[in-house]
# Entry
Amino acid sequence: MLFGHIQEALQYIQTRTDFQPRYGIILGTGLSGLAAEIEAVAAIDYRDVPHFPVSTVQSHKGNLVFGMLAGQPVVAMAGRFHYYEGYTAKEITFPVRVLKFLGIERLFISNAAGSTNPDIEAGDIVFIRDHINTQPDNPLRGPNDERLGPRFPDMLHAYDRALNARGLEIARRHGIRAHEGVYLALQGPNLETPAEYRYFHIIGADLVGMSTVPEVLVARHMGLPVLALSVATNKCYPIEEIRETTVEEVIAVAQSAEPKMRQIVTGLLEELG
# Structure
């Protein structure tokens, strides 16, 4: 059934555009403005694509944008899906599978996250090098279709560390504060308690958020290399630095950091080209 649904979505998209993307980009909270930098040849509303979920989150536009970015053919998801919206892990990650069948060679993922590392400040960029998954559902659960990937995909190299190194060098050249770190995924939608933040710090998390890991699991299941970038939007450790946080504040910090993200992503695309 999943394979058939992918084909139906693919067939519809191909009636709207014959553009061939090389890279896929998932734009997270407050970061969808990067889509405006794309020299677009087509934009398709999620609502029109068979079996696509619909984004319900503030600041997520909800469309696929095809075009050129930094001289490279890309397809961007302007808005993603989250477990807390009520979708299953399979529904959240369905678009990643469609992007793979559209022919992308690599997936770029962005998100906004809280910092549980005292050295990572609000507004810093963090290249994810590993993750801790505490979400209660897994998109690979259930019967496995070998046409999509192996039953037990290995996660030793879930993130492209070599590309991280290139991105860190680009950040250094532009004077952007950037780090590598471990991302911990929660189901949300509530923010966390001080005791939880302390726990996440103790077990080795540098960032905490509510997305990204399901998409990474599916990308690796399908053999797609992944680069994942976080904007740290608020300090969650040390405990005495925690302040009450609203979604509006998170979006504002993410949007203010968007030019940094844009410099890094476009710089990487230029190098890859």
Observations:
- DSSP finds six helices and nine strands in the chain.
- Residues 2-272 form a domain with the Rossmann fold fold (CATH 3.40.50.1580).
- The two ends are 36 Å apart (CA to CA).
- The first strand starts at residue 23 and ends at 27.
